Give the backbone structure.
Amino acid sequence: MTYWRARSNTLVLLACATLAGAVAARDPAWLDIAIAIVINALVALSVGLTFGQAGILSAAQGSFAAIGAYTTAILTVRLGWSPWLALPVAIALPAGLGHGLARLVTRLAPLAVALATLTLSAIIEIVLRSWDNLTGGYVGLAGIPSVFAGQPIAFYGLAVGMLALAVLAYENLMLSRFGRGLTTIRGDRARAIADGIAVPGLLSAAFALAAAMAGAGGWLYAHYFSYLSPGSLGTELSISVLLMMVVGGARHILGPVAGAVILGVLAQLLPAQEVQGLFYGGALIVILLVARNGLLGLVRREGTL
């Protein structure tokens, strides 16, 4: 049973993504939407790990994605690196920043942590806009080399593969001593300290892993859309993926992924940006009233993966 549970989320994800890809491949516009949804789902998954499992409310996941995206853009456009060589750096840099940030803020109250990460997000956006020689400033960076140029279905497969690897690592992690420690910390931090759990180190590791996931999402974004500006990723994305997590269910591994799919598809069916904002706000209120554990919480009992 443990063997199946450790991989069930990944199998469900792959099955659903394969079916969705087969349907979306018939229409290039919907294939573009599907790729964007998968990228958002990877960033939303990082929020599920930080808040749903570690209890850390981060408002900086979009900025970690931006760091990953700009890192690979700078390395490939300005220094001529291969996108594949830039991938480990685009993952490692947000992870290192996330680990250092977590060491500073995880001892604070939850609201203070949220404000600290929001402040970091604002600082990163200012740097991206101001450092013209490196980031392109307000103009941004164009000409980022594509991966699988002209083959969006291949890129979709790559994006789904990276999301599946993140889900597989996430679910195996939560069934390990590391995951059980996070569960104890989330439930009662004082008890975790009394049990001898290294709370700051564990939370910092979880935050670093989440930042790495977001960085991978940024790498995918940069090499699919081939253009970056300070408005491409950042605070707006951070808020969006928080909403995706709440809608899908923070305590379930596939909750943020489900939220990304639901809101991503519905956003395409709504006629205007203003209407989308009203819909998102209304959806959040309904979810909090009807399904406090998210939509997956309605069909899966609390505590399951």
